[in-house]
Amino acid sequence: MTHQTDIKPDVSVFFPCYNEEENVERTTRAAVKACERLFDDFEVIIVNDGSKDRTGEIADRLAAEIPQVRAVHNSPNRGYGGALQRGFAEATKTYVFYTDGDGQFDFEEMDKLLPMMKKYDIVSCYRMNRQDPLHRRLNAKCWGLLVDALFKIRLRDIDCAFKIYPRSLFEEMELHSEGALIDTEILARARRLGYSIGQFGVTHYPRTAGEQTGANLKVILRAFKELFQLHSIIRNTSRGSQGSSARHGGQLTRPARTA
Q1: pTM: predicted TM-score of the whole model, two decimal places
Q2: Using one digit for the tens of pLDDT, what is the confidence trace for 138-190?
Q3: Can you tell me whether residue 71 is helix, strand or coil?
Q4: How far is CA 104 from CA 24, 92, 107, 198, in A?
Q5: Which of 134, 142, 249, 258 has the fewest CB atoms within 10 Å, i.e. the most exposed one?
Q6: Domain span at 38
Q7: For residues 124 and 96, is the Cβ–Cβ distance under 8 A?
Q8: How many domains does the chain have?
Q9: How remote is the C-alpha of 119 from its chain's centroid?
């Protein structure tokens, strides 16, 4: 199949926010600025996941001020996986890009996605020189090795929050993860359906405001429990009629190798 060289897809961009009153405006405006340069048709969705600070108030103000911005609110807090599920459900464009609301990624690097989208159905990035504490990096390394052993997805940084998917993917799967397992669930199910996955490195910046969440022991133990449950479910799930074909631009294509 021949792909266009000047692809400018219509894109929904979203990011979950939990108590990010110090980051949400800066992140939103950076997203809009990058999208205006890169895409002709886009929307930016702020997913306020039950924040207890002024995140929701600021998100509503930005949505009223900027036509391409929408704010949606989870009440109560649904957790990281639940927030991502809300974002995917709210998206209306052909492609869905998501990142985190803490400002540790540069939206301008979305331009690297465009050439990758000509070859792959999904683009999943990895953090170069990850700017997180040592214990988080070690946890992520061990988690990645375990995920790869179980699912053979072979990605360098499966939980990196800089990914783009075709929105149609989410019409083919029912997601269950409400917590940290969400990225693994999506990519493992997508691989099972025959979608091709490419990857490249993006810059990771230190958090300059707010506090990290999601690394407490309860969250980690829940993720491990759900991981083995997911492995059992997917192992016993038929590949269905897709076989080893992947979807690209609404047509069946031969899946590409993961970069």
Answers
A1: 0.82
A2: 777 777 778 777 888 889 899 899 999 999 999 999 998 888 889 999 999 99
A3: strand
A4: 12, 25, 10, 21
A5: 134
A6: 11-239
A7: no
A8: 1
A9: 19
Cis geometry, peptide bond prior to residue 76 (ω within 30 degrees of 0): yes
Cα–Cα distance measured from residue 10 to residue 94, given in angstroms and rounded to the nearest whole number? 6
* 214 falls within a domain: yes
3-class DSSP state for residue 70? strand
Please give the Cα distance from 31 to 194 (Å, whole number).
30
87, part of any domain: yes
Task: Judge whether 258 lies within some domain.
Answer: no
Q: Each residue of 122-149: pLDDT tens digit?
A: 999 999 877 666 766 677 777 777 877 7
Half-sphere exposure of 82 (CA within 13 A, CB side): 14
What is the pLDDT at residue 42? 98
Residues 6+ apart with CB under 8 A from 135: 215
Q: Both tokens of residue 123?
A: 């683009």
Q: Which CATH number is 162's domain given?
A: 3.90.550.10
Tokens 């829940």 belong to: 222
Q: Is 16 a member of any domain?
A: yes
**Strand 201-203 relative to strand 126-128, pairing:** parallel
